[in-house]
């Protein structure tokens, strides 16, 4: 069942505050799980909000994000305003369909093993403890996102890619431009993208000349050894994409996770009483996050049936993972933050052949953050009311602009 144009919803959907889900989600899941929405660009897309529908489409290898070759694919950003990731015709060269995509995942995924994440963890702990120490020394109130949420994943992903963390402010600007929907003009976005590509191209060339232990060195080595590795353009797209995904989304999630846990003090107190809940609490924060962004787009290369309705080839579908994560058909007490929830099959990292390669890294960073804060700052609390928190605007990803805290 689709809504008529008089009831046409426009993304992003409004909510009472940045931590609460839009009221429309529950109604859509119940009455109109396959609906038509309008994107900021003015284009229309199909919007999915039920868990089984979202998981099925994300798991289907036939469907991927729109590319420049996908005629009629809906744009998220207005003409001339969006970044490469927003307009459906990204200039990143990354294989996204079929065997080339699987080959790319196999090569890059070799780095993100459980063993390697375990090896990275002590360094993450030391970095997080140092950042918390600096935050306390500077005095309260403090912005937890600026002091810990942003720098921790930047240091980690820079180490993984072998780029200097001293350039983190430039990375932040380039990432925002890459994820832009309405924050920058098209000219500003293109300029930032060109600077970003030039920087990473020079880094890849330097790494090729003097390889190290980082991910880029590993991929270059395997490419040269097997003869079926990534092209230079694919390597550039990988480096740029991982730098964006590896710090922007996790930095935002750290702030949101801490805000969600402090918004209801009983959650924080329960973790203080039982820090063995940190692992399940992190996954529950990932599920409970209502401020995740637009969702994941899929371009239908052939007709597909969803909820008894045939969506024709050429349709752009927006899969709302956060709406699906609140589906009461799958999650008992879906609108409660249950810190001990297990199993927790949330869709925050996607599903199937396009699920997030770095999810083990993100989980490790979030667990380390929570462990360190519970140990070092057990009296941590929000310095403002929930209603005073401000959401990130104008980007594909959701988040909080600041997370003011006291202790």
From TrEMBL:
Region (Disordered): 1-22, 69-99
One Pfam family cited in the UniProt record for this chain: p450
Keyword line: Heme, Iron, Metal-binding, Monooxygenase, Oxidoreductase
UniProt xrefs under PROSITE patterns: CYTOCHROME_P450
Cofactor(s) needed for function: heme
Entries under InterPro entries matching the protein: Cyt_P450, Cyt_P450_B, Cyt_P450_CS, Cyt_P450_sf
Heme as UniProt keyword: yes
Domain of life: Bacteria
Coiled coil: none
Listed GO MF terms: heme binding; iron ion binding; monooxygenase activity; oxidoreductase activity, acting on paired donors, with incorporation or reduction of molecular oxygen
Annotated Low complexity bias: 9-18
Family statement drawn from the similarity comment of this UniProt entry: Belongs to the cytochrome P450 family.
This protein's name: Cytochrome
Organism annotation: Streptomyces caeruleatus
